[in-house]
Design a protein that fits this description.
Layout: H1 2-17, H2 28-61, H3 66-84, H4 86-99, E1 102-105, E2 116-119
Antiparallel strand pairs: 1-2
Helix pairs in contact: 2-3
């Protein structure tokens, strides 16, 4: 029996010597999350810049017509609001989906006044 233990310790020590060391630092999920946040920030900046450029282009194209400028401001505002609110909408939908369904348990032997309602 001791030969088996000695052999297994030799095999384990041989494999540990050739094993690759763990990389120090953040994991891949932390890196992806950081890149996602950075990309979202860049896209929000691009959306604001495009909204401003759109309003300026419409003002120049209409030669200063206030109605067209106001309509383009409203359109740019809706576009920018949509880009900035994507995460809020995602969170709201996630919260609605997380509520789940209500499970009603009925006991046929119990009177109607003692129904118990539970949520999962």
């Amino acid at each position: 029996m001791s030969t088996l233990i000695q052999l297994s310790t030799e095999i384990i020590s041989a494999h540990q010597a050739g094993a690759l060391p763990m990389a120090a630092g953040d994991g891949i999920l932390d890196w992806v999350t950081a890149k996602n946040t950075q990309t979202q920030t860049v896209l929000r900046g691009v959306a604001v810049t495009l909204g401003i450029i759109f309003v300026i282009m419409q003002a120049v194209a209409s030669r200063g017509a206030m109605a067209r400028i106001i309509i383009s401001l409203i359109a740019a505002g809706i576009f920018i609001w949509g880009v900035w609110s994507v995460t809020d909408i995602k969170d709201r939908v996630g919260n609605e989906m997380a509520l789940g369904s209500v499970v009603v348990q009925l006991d046929a032997a119990a009177p109607a006044s003692s129904l118990s309602f539970s949520s999962t």
